[in-house]
Amino acid sequence: MLETGFNPFYGVMPGWFLYFGITIATAAAIIASQALISGSFTLISESMRLNLWPKFRIVYPTEARGQLFIPAINLLLFAGCIGIVLYFKKASNMEAAYGLAITLCMIATSILFANYLVQKRVKPVLIYLYLIVYLSIELSFLWANMEKFTHGGYVTLIVGGGLFFVMYDWFRARKIKNRYVEFVRLDQYVPQIQELSNDKTVPRYATHLVYMTSADIEKEIEHKIIYSILFKKPKRADIYWFVHVDTLDDPYTAEYKVTHIIPNDIIRVDFRLGFRVEPRIDLLFRKVVEDLVINHEVNVTSRYESLGKNNIVGDFQFIVMEKYLSQDNELSFWEKIIMKFHFLLKGISLSEEKGFGLDPGKVVTEKFPLIVAPVDIKIKRIQE
Question: Is the pLDDT of residue 258 over 50?
């Protein structure tokens, strides 16, 4: 019969080694906590790259891309630790939650490793043998821990379920948004953009109109940008700029490429930046324009007569497009929840303005209606 307060872990140690054992156990706990923190940053970073998590700012303290720091996740871990401590109050009260978390982690690891073996085309009989051996052990642990579910084990499922729902929502919302055609062929709209640029009856919106584009292919452009230029409120400008940013694995690459779709009228700039190069697109874009002016590739002088005769540089206006879920959608109840939570997450994630380092004084944010399931309304006209 064990004495009250007896700890078997320290009980197996000789009396002279007890303090050394406590020191080693404390150091191991600190190392494990640091591994948890750094591992969380890595997992969230990979989730963002896979488009399974909202965008957050990433800081790279070294030249290795794997060594990173995400302030928002660090704050989330801090709030989570404080909340767990205040809830359980004692370490002994966390045993059920901890045991269930470890067991679920073991099961998930076994399943993921089995998927890896399938991709490597390992013989099915070996995969099934592996799953039978490991899952039989791990499921027995799970069954034993389920008895402690009501004593705190449910906290594990709440925390894990919350993280899973965020990832599922981000993934599912992307699937729903893919019903809407994101990209169109730019050459189909070039004549209309040129006509708008030369139409004196339309008030000039800006001398230089700059849009950030995520289209990797030079001949494509987001439909929302065409909507902004031509359909929402015609935006007449003398030169239209489309800016694209690629983030590379090399830490300090800083390159750009210019494509003159229509010389001195429609220009695309592609930046290739290393992951440690801060994307100050406003500053980098000005440097590119300066180089183009020096090489006589573009004329940035204001087209207003009173300003142009004094060689004053025209104004540059950045347009940032933000989607919102239009009321013209006919979504199911579950899809409505998914999309509303998605836009809630998007509201607290990193905005394009901050992510690209744009000067707020030069940025105009426009709302773009997202219509993925148009409402089919039938209305009948009657005669008096």
Answer: yes
